[in-house]
Amino acid sequence: MRKSEAYPVLFLTFVVLVAVVVLTLTNSITRDKIALAKKQAVAEMLSALFPNMDSFTYDDKTGTYTILADKTTIGYAFTAEGRGYGGPIDILIGLKPDNKTLQGIRIISQQETPGLGAKIVEASFLDQFSGISVDQVKLARNGGKIDAITGATISSTAVVKGVRNAIEQRLGKGGTG
């Protein structure tokens, strides 16, 4: 290899090494901030689902949040995932202490089509999940209480299936609390 051919290889090697160092430093600096931001976002969603909430605990083993008010359990929450048109839809599900009634749901993250599937984050869709029994978590056309979003049947179905599957999995394992 001639000397003139080695310079680009050495330069690219140097650039890659600098990039690795910078990315590693950035990750170590922001890791705790990102974790704190996620915890705050979850706390905000939990307080939106459970307005009377004073505090919550989290069980790593079961992935369940226990929601407390005046040191009394007022509900449970856990995450679920649906497969939408644009990819995964992460959902936070709130259950009342009876484990038979939904407190409600919130969409944690989604990549659905703006103006169509992305409407799953709107109150008009989310509010349908408040106060209904676990058995009613089906689309209306399938005998349930949830109306699909016009033009976004895949996204609506993904949320309903994600919620229903997560609840069945939880309650099939002896409940959340």
Give the key terms.
alpha+beta; five-stranded antiparallel β-sheet; 3 helices; about 40% helix; about 20% strand
Question: Care to give the gist of this entry?
Answer:
The protein is of the alpha+beta class and 177 residues long. The protein has 3 helices and 5 strands; from the N terminus they run H-E-E-E-E-E-H-H. It has one domain (49-172).
Strand content: 15-25%
Assembly type? single chain
Would you identify the regions where 5 or more consecutive residues have pLDDT less than 50?
none
Number of helices: 3
Q: What is the mean pLDDT? A: 90
Describe the main β-sheet briefly: 5 strands, antiparallel
Helical residues, percent: 40-55%
The ordered H/E elements are HEEEEEHH
Instruction: Report the C-alpha radius of gyration, rounded.
Output: 22 Å
Notes on the protein architecture:
The protein has helices at 3-49, 123-126, 153-172, and strands spanning 55-59, 64-69, 72-83, 88-95, 102-109. It is of the alpha+beta class and 177 residues long. A hairpin with a 6-residue loop joins β4 and β5. 40% of the residues lie in helices and 22% in strands. The chain has 3 helices and 5 strands; from the N terminus they run αβββββαα. The chain has one domain (49-172). The model has no long low-confidence stretch (mean pLDDT 90).
